[in-house]
Amino acid sequence: MGEPPGPRGLALVLTCGRVVLADYLVGIDVGGTFTDFVSYNSKTRAIDVWKILSTPHDPNEGVLGGLGHFEAPSDIRNIRLGTTVATNAILERKGATVAYVTTEGFRDIPFIQRGNRRSHYDITWIKPKPLVKRRHCYEVSERIMADGTVHVPLDEDGVRTIAQQIREDGSIEAVALNFLFSYVTPDHERRAKEILEEELPDIPISISYDVLPKWKEYERASTTIADAYVKPVVNSQIANLRERFKASGITDQAVVIKSNGGEMTLEAAQRTPIQMTVSGPTGGVIAGKHVAKLSGISHLVTLDMGGTSTDTSTIVGGKENFTTDYEVEFGVPIQIPMIDIRTIGAGGGSIAWIDKGGMLRVGPESAGANPGPACYGSGGERPAVTDANLLLGRINPENFLGGEMALDMQAAEKALASVAGPLGRTAEETALAIVQIANNNMVGALRSVLIERGLDPRDFALLAFGGAGPLHAADLMNDAGIPSGVIPNYPGHFSAFGFILTDARVDVQRTVQMTSKRFDQDRASEVMAALIETGIAELKAQGYVKNIEDLPLAGDALSRAELRAGDPDRLRFLHRRDDAQGLAGVP
């Protein structure tokens, strides 16, 4: 038998502020179509914004190209980067070849998964393949019991045999280690990692205790495999970026935005890159939280429509929502704490096409930055949402990208005509239909974060941003039943602006098996103290040195602890609504 169901684990969140003594603080949002930049001069308090076309073949090229905006790159002392490199590696299946090492008898966990499926009644649905091949799954004799006792010692010779098999295979680029009940006692995982590092010094290794020390072996396996899958890709890109920063005279620390809305150093990102899963979209939610505070509008639904996709989330009572139930795609659950964001393939670059039944469709395929929509004049011939908006007069072709990029109206009309002809419609009618279909897709996304969660759209205001968000805001408000809206200054740079508002944030969590009737206060306090120590140690390792005063731990307030910027020496314990609900019915 595998691991039994258990209660929710204890989760701790530590955040603290970074003091920036630099001339320029720069937020960079690397999107699929554009790379956005926001700079803040800490001396003059001036804010500047600009964007350039992304370079999908080499995202770092776009980052460095945009930083050429500065006359003296040495003036840049702090960069906060949001990127989708980890997500894209999974979605495009361009990650590493992974070896999965687990407890004897459990190598099929990544394939058995759970009993759910994406489309219960779709007989044509094909289940996506896991990130690891079965022939690359290895078993080792060892067994930790649910109470943490050792039932079967680790077979160290067996681990060395696996290392030999990996060497002989020749294709393995990363290793994921996940032993049963390792979240209780990680000794076997850590020892196995030591052996594999000795035997395979050039192959990165991820262990589940470092990535996700929580119950549920399948979700822990999936998250650890995903971490190993993206690690070589992320490590290579970050190493290349650091070299380019150094060569350009950008000498101080750069940080990467995490999925939980915090920031981490480049070194930390290389250790656990899965924390970057939804790095880019979090910026808009962070900035949205700032807007909620300034405007007094406590309930916001955010809509970030860029060139490739649309991201939606909610801010309730002035606070962002978090989740640990996230799937990059079906069958790839990632259970690290992150801001709850829903993404659909509807952006300004989403391509309009006709399906086999003769119906007009929009997305999820995007024209991206190259060639981009037809109106970009870069060789694109298929119509996109931006082409439709241009033909309908919703975009000024002379002032696109602040006048730095002229749009080709004739190219847009020609592309739209290629779809309009088979439909028996004019280009203008087709353009309107494309916009309406894109709107319908986005209304569905808004409803998924509102109505499906029991939230009334009438209680919310729509915060629309991204390069294309404000173009569609009025229609979306009307169709979704949202009574009011907010359009921020520089909406096309809003996510990058959110990056300069981030704090360092470390999430540490651990599952502890106990029931409410047998609640062990001393045990819970011991675990919480260990979590706090682990979180603070990680903050210190990343350069955030804080002295934390000792606080008594109340028995029922162990869901989250938060160290706030501006009040760095106080710990505040918070209950999460979902944690409280998760205990309902527990004997």
TrEMBL record:
GO molecular function: 5-oxoprolinase (ATP-hydrolyzing) activity
Span of domain Hydantoinase A/oxoprolinase: 220-506
Tagged with keyword Signal: yes
All residue ranges annotated as the Hydantoinase/oxoprolinase N-terminal domain in the record: 26-199
Keyword vocabulary terms for this entry: Signal
InterPro entries, per the entry: Hydant_A_N, Hydantoinase_A, Oxoprolinase-like
GO cellular component, one term: cytosol
Name of the featured protein: D-/L-hydantoinase subunit A
Organism, scientific name: Geodia barretti
Lineage of the organism: Eukaryota, Metazoa, Porifera, Demospongiae, Heteroscleromorpha
